[in-house]
Amino acid sequence: MHDKPPIFAEPPGGFLPTLSYPVPTLIPCDVVSRQLSPDDRELVTVVLRHTNATTGESHFRVAAAELVTAQ
Q: Which domain does 41 fall in, by range?
């Protein structure tokens, strides 16, 4: 996925050319569904807000443990 920095949570110190990319960040999304994988991990399907992947996708399946709830 490629996009402009304002949609991503800024890393400490900001997005600088001296960073080693890619960097971990937060991307706003909404949970569409939840299910258990065959090995009993909780998986969630999310839809991204404000962006799509370069392939046109907007829904992604990720491990529930990777989600961070807004404070």
A: 5-66
Does residue 71 fall inside a structural domain? no
- Within-domain flag for 25: yes
DSSP secondary structure, 28-68, as one string = -EEEEEEEE-TTS-EEEEEEESS---TTS--EEEEEGGG--
| pLDDT tens digits along 6-54 | 556 667 777 778 888 787 777 888 999 999 999 999 999 999 887 767 7
- Count up the domains in the chain and report the number: 1
- Which residues, at least 6 apart from 41, have a Cβ–Cβ distance to it below 8 Å? 63, 64, 65
pTM for the whole structure: 0.64
